[in-house]
Amino acid sequence: MNTPDAGFVILGRMKSLRYRVIWGTVLSVTIAAAGVLGFRVLFASRKPTAPACPMSQGLAFGCYEAYYGSIVGREGVGEAFVDLKARYPTDPRVQALCHAITHHIGQAAFRKYSDISAAFLHGDNVCGSGYYHGVLEGLASRMGREKLLSNLDSICAGMPGKERYSLDYYNCVHGLGHGIMAITGDELFDALHHCDKLTGSVEQTTCDNGVFMENLIVDGEHGGNFSRYLKPAEPLYPCTVVERKYKPACLEIQTSYALGAVRGDVAKVFALCADLEMSFRSTCYQSIGRDAATISLNRVPGTVATCNLGIDYEQRSNCITGAVLDFVYYYHGSAQALELCAALDQDLRRVCRSTVAKVVGRF
């Protein structure tokens, strides 16, 4: 069984193609049964004053965008996150739009600070680290298409820990993929070709994953059926049609959309992955594992039950690999991940513990 590479672990869980380097997962994507993006956060106790936003998700997004942008401008990024965390447990619109909202908090932060590093200092990883992705979208908007695309290598060059692929550096390059999508009008194939201009296979693949993630986000922001590059009748599209080199980065996130498209039927998504070429199946199954951890709120019984829906060892073991990586990232340590391992049958327990040992030193 293949151990997932860079992008899959951080989602940050992108593949690091030529060499294996395990980063920490930032993306915790799951698509709710209706097919819209939803993310986990750590909840605060403060009770916010609710804005009068429409119940319709498509209309609500613009309302929340303005609301949180104004908080950043008046009170700062920290207050925006305090409000968001307090609102999340009781507002289904915020739950569905959380990652997209944090993108716009990040965009507002870049407008406030006009510098990536300064904006990153105020960041928060809640809702799949969307804040950092939004900062890069803000930069892309400020620079404009021509200037951005002619200076791609320089954008994240000053991020701390570049030489060791730190979380900040990952978030910057991944966010660059989001920014490229925004500056190219959400044209997925054009954006992927621009990611190819980055120096380094890790950087290219990390950027690719940002592109594929933005494809899901822009669809979720508008209540679904918006992106030209998503097809409910073909839940793994566009992964099925992109060039081979892009398929791993695509599949590391696409199962989240697929789960929404099949109304949460995990067994159906396992079957969709099983129909892929053999070399891509493990990536797809591991992505289901990330979804399993997310859906269960990183609780052991639900995660195990979801992965046990796999029909054979290949499906279940890869699912557990993806899930335990998400546990390590979510808790920033190995204790809860090893609890997950202890709850498994012996054959899966070995795979689980081996994965934890390989990845935990990166956090």
Q: Strand pairing plus helix content: what structural class?
A: mainly alpha
The count of DSSP E runs of length 2 or more, i.e. the number of strands, is 2
Estimate the global geometry from the Cα principal axes.
globular
Low-confidence stretches: 1-47
What is the subunit organization of this protein? Answer: single chain
- Distance between the amino and carboxyl termini: 23 Å
Q: How many domain modules?
A: 2
Structural notes for this entry:
The protein folds into two domains: 32-230, no CATH class; 234-363. The chain has 18 helices and two strands. The protein has helices at residues 6-10, 57-75, 77-87, 92-113, 116-121, 126-143, 145-149, 152-155, 167-183, 188-195, 201-221, 247-261, 266-274, 278-295, 300-307, 313-331, 335-342, 346-359; strands at 30-31, 37-38. Strand 1 (30-31) and strand 2 form a beta hairpin. Helix 16 (313-331) packs across helix 18 (346-359). The longest helix is centred in the N-terminal third of the chain and has 22 residues, at 92-113. Mean pLDDT is 83; it is low at 1-47.
